[in-house]
Every structure is written in C-alpha cells, then in structure tokens.
Design a protein that fits this description.
Radius of gyration: 20 Å
Keywords: ANK repeat
Largest sheet: 2 strands, parallel
Organism: Durusdinium trenchii
Structural class: mainly alpha
Strand order of the largest sheet: 1-2
Helix content: 40-55%
CATH class of the largest domain: Mainly Alpha
Distance between the termini: 40 Å
Pfam families: Ank
Protein name: Caskin-2
Order of helices and strands: HHHHHEHE
Length: 143
C-alpha cells in the first residue's frame, strides 16, 4: 500500500514576506551599528572622534566584519574614504589582518563590487564580450 506524500511549497506571498523581513533585519542591524559607533549615515564620520576620525567603512574594516561591510557597501558607503590621518579602510584591514582574519573584508575592499539580484547579474555577465571582461565581484542577493 503506498501513501500519497503531500509537500507544502511556500507561497509567493510567504517568500516576499521573508524577503521584506530579511531586508528589515539588515536595516536594523546597520542602524544599530551606526548608532553604537556614533555615526548617523554610512558616509558620515563618527560624531565624537578620538585621535582619528573614522567613517563606518573604517570601523567595519577594523572589526573584520564582512557581513557588516557588505551592508555598508549595499547602502552606498564610500570605500575610498580616508580617515583624518589619511588611512583607507583597506589599509586598516591589512594592518589588523592576522592569519586571514580580515581576508573577506579585504576582498570586498580590493575589487569593485556590484550588488544586484540574479537577473541583473546575468545581464551584467552577458553585456560585455568575454575578451573585454575585467575580473569583478558580483554579489547576488538571493534573499
């Protein structure tokens, strides 16, 4: 005797709700980080600087937090921004890197990164002829 197995697939509405929830959680995480370090925007320095004025990209680089760095980049953070002493986020991450602890952050900072959905990523890959393509990071948002 065989049993019929019924699989319940998630509805499109449930997937959309999940995406919205994920975006909301990411936004909250970013806002908590900015508030905790005295910043009010991804491209503005800390309100209470110490010896050196840091921007959020510098703080994420020093922490070695790749997830946070991705969030900052998705929200338009300027990776070329220099601290008040002229140091870049990449230089700070290199200095703090011990046995690969900051490698993922360094990868995000070293290459141009484009954040997009899968459809846009496919279009980017098809636009340029293979001979003209430069190595580039494309981070696909699947959530």
């Amino acid at each position: 005797m065989s049993k019929n197995v019924v699989m319940k697939l998630p509805s499109i509405k449930a997937e959309e709700t999940s995406r919205r929830w994920t975006k909301k959680m990411q936004q909250e995480e970013l806002q908590e980080f900015l508030h905790a370090y005295g910043c009010d925007h991804v491209n503005r320095p800390q309100k209470k600087p110490g010896k050196e004025t840091f921007y959020p990209v510098h703080l994420a680089a020093l922490l070695g937090d790749a997830t946070l760095m991705r969030l900052l980049l998705q929200h338009g953070a300027n990776v070329q921004q220099r601290s008040s002493l002229g140091r870049s986020a990449w230089e700070m991450a290199v200095q703090k890197n011990v046995h690969g602890s900051h490698d993922e952050v360094l990868l995000l900072l070293a290459e141009p990164v484009t954040f997009c959905n899968l459809r846009a990523a496919m279009q980017l890959m098809q636009e340029a002829p293979i001979s003209a393509r430069k190595p580039r990071s494309v981070l696909v948002n699947v959530s």
